[in-house]
Amino acid sequence: MRLQLLAIGTRMPSWVNEAYRDYADRLPAECRLELREIAMPKRHRSSKVEALKTREAEDLLDAVPKANWVIALDGQGKSLTTEALAEQLDKWMQSGRDVSLLVGGPDGLDAQVRQRADWSWSLSPLTFPHPLVRVVVAEQLYRAWSLLRGHPYHRGD
């Protein structure tokens, strides 16, 4: 199974890229995580937020392979424990389908992404800067995989 992280924004700070890569590289081929950055539309003082979000949504959805499960990373989504994420990851792996995880820009996801999503995942009731979401997703997916495989990385209660 391939996990595809589709994220709005390029030119992230080096610490974001390094932290993301550290966790993504730990995942084995059976659960490979690949990042695809989608350019953020140009912003101007006169730019309307809704128009920007619509453009981002179109670009994100165009990048999703047709057969993939679509997971929206969204504050309105379902919060999971590590154990529940591990169960979800196991289901994805058993399904034989690849998964696309969609991360919006600084203004969040447009409604059309939420409508297209097969499932919405909230990392926290807190609001995170969108570059940090990449790191948290990669770490949590690695943690969930390590829990499934009995790897000592996850030392939960």
From TrEMBL:
Catalyzed reactions: pseudouridine(1915) in 23S rRNA + S-adenosyl-L-methionine = N(3)-methylpseudouridine(1915) in 23S rRNA + S-adenosyl-L-homocysteine + H(+)
Gene Ontology CC annotations of this record: cytoplasm
Entry's Gene Ontology molecular function annotations: rRNA (pseudouridine-N3-)-methyltransferase activity
Chain segments annotated as transmembrane: none
Enzyme Commission no: 2.1.1.177
Binding site for S-adenosyl-L-methionine: 73, 104, 123-128
Keyword Nuclease: no
SUPFAM superfamilies, per the entry: alpha/beta knot (SSF75217)
Alphabetized UniProt keyword annotations: Cytoplasm, Methyltransferase, rRNA processing, S-adenosyl-L-methionine, Transferase
Alphabetized Pfam families for the sequence: SPOUT_MTase
InterPro entries linked: Alpha/beta_knot_MTases, RlmH-like, tRNA_m1G_MTases_N
Protein localization: Cytoplasm
Function, in words: Specifically methylates the pseudouridine at position 1915 (m3Psi1915) in 23S rRNA.
Family according to the record: Belongs to the RNA methyltransferase RlmH family.
NCBIfam families, A to Z: PRK00103.1-4 (NF000986), tRNA_RlmH_YbeA (TIGR00246)
HAMAP family referenced in this protein's UniProt entry, alphabetically: 23SrRNA_methyltr_H
Subunit structure and binding partners: Homodimer.
UniProt-recorded name of the protein: Ribosomal RNA large subunit methyltransferase H
Lineage summary: Bacteria, Pseudomonadati, Pseudomonadota, Gammaproteobacteria, Chromatiales
